[in-house]
């Protein structure tokens, strides 16, 4: 389950000349990826969207009491006494939940955790020691930032690990939190490192195209090594107005560009037939659990919560096709 930070939908990316939409859809189809258009993030912010994946549901809605203790990601992963539904469920099923983070949200080494980080053993022990003694101090944060997973190119980092761990055939749920195409925009379209591109539009365009290259390389490898694997590539939200201020001029446009996400899934055709396509974050993780583990989680209403945590606004599913025609 691969998160691509700020990865907007192909429809909108094509509209602002980031990509050739028709060609990319053909490329994804050749990789046996089903691109699910008109998909929307559950929230406009990463810490809430990722929490909805871990909760397998909306962690906060317009009906949530203002004084309720809300779990946000990755803060929720630091609270050992509380259950984290997704990794806990995967463990109960006899599978292994692996978390690959990034410099902003690295995999956390905690006591009695229900997930696995892929650091070397000595780094794991060192991080646990630092967290035990210096929890919530600058040193704790510094160590997390230094020993992070793969910098910007988290997918390539995991591929290297996977190639070294071929003998490990245990069933896994791998959650990869990839920072690209989010800023800082310091890669080329071919994923070569570069000095941060200060031209926001060109920087995002190159990072978006790099993400597509990573998707292609990753899926090609997995299709050979584990052809039955279910794979999800999904944006946690779209872009903010400052990326394209000349294109996003209205409040409706601002919401649409933030809510509309890239969502591509590699799964058996019978799963799509049985459960239907998942058009939102929460429903995608439910689709994966249904398809891979035989559950029958019902799909939730497709909702995108926009604006700040203190001012959550409820929006029903947006009709992207009609909005783009306006």
Shape, per Cα inertia axes: globular
Say what oligomer this is.
single chain
**What pattern of helices and strands is seen along the backbone?**
EHHEHHEHHHEHEHEHHEEH
User: Could you report the average pLDDT, rounded to the nearest whole number?
Assistant: 85
In whole angstroms, the N-to-C terminal distance is 34 Å
The main β sheet shows up as: 6 strands, mixed
Unreliable stretches: 308-317, 320-326
Please describe what this structure looks like.
The structure is a single chain. By secondary structure, the protein is an alpha/beta fold. The chain is built from 12 helices and 8 strands. It has helices at residues 10-15, 21-30, 46-55, 85-92, 121-134, 138-146, 154-164, 200-225, 251-259, 269-275, 281-293, 320-324; strands at residues 2-4, 34-35, 96-100, 172-178, 231-235, 263-266, 304-306, 313-315. The strands form 2 sheets. It has a 6-stranded mixed β-sheet with strand order 2-6-5-1-4-3, with helices on both faces. The longest helix has 26 residues, at 200-225. The model is unreliable at 308-317 and 320-326 (pLDDT under 50).
């Amino acid at each position: 389950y691969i998160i691509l930070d700020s990865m907007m939908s192909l429809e909108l990316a094509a509209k602002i000349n980031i990509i050739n939409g028709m060609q990319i859809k053909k490329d994804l189809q050749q990789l046996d990826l089903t691109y699910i258009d008109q998909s929307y993030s559950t929230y406009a912010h990463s810490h809430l969207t990722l929490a909805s994946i871990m909760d397998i549901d909306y962690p906060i809605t317009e009906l949530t009491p203002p004084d309720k203790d809300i779990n946000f990601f990755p803060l929720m992963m630091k609270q050992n006494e509380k259950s984290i539904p997704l990794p806990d469920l995967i463990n109960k099923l006899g599978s292994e939940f692996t978390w690959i983070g990034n410099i902003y949200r690295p995999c956390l080494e905690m006591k009695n955790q229900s997930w696995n980080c892929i650091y070397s053993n000595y780094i794991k022990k060192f991080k646990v020691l630092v967290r035990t003694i210096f929890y919530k101090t600058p040193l704790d944060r510094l160590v997390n930032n230094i020993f992070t997973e793969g910098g910007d190119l988290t997918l390539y980092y995991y591929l290297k690990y996977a190639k070294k761990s071929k003998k490990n055939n245990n069933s896994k749920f791998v959650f990869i939190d990839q920072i690209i195409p989010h800023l800082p925009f310091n890669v080329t379209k071919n994923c070569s490192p570069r000095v941060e591109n200060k031209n926001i539009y060109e920087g995002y365009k190159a990072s978006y195209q790099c993400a597509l290259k990573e998707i292609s390389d990753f899926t090609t490898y997995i299709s050979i090594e584990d052809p039955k694997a279910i794979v999800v590539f999904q944006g946690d939200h779209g872009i903010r107005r400052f990326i394209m201020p000349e294109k996003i001029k209205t409040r409706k446009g601002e919401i649409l560009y933030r809510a509309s996400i890239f969502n591509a899934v590699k799964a058996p055709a019978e799963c799509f037939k049985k459960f239907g396509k998942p058009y939102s974050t929460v429903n995608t993780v439910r689709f994966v659990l249904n398809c891979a583990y035989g559950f029958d989680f019902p799909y939730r209403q497709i909702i995108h919560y926009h604006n700040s945590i203190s001012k959550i606004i409820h929006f029903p599913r947006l009709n992207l096709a009609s909005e783009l025609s306006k």
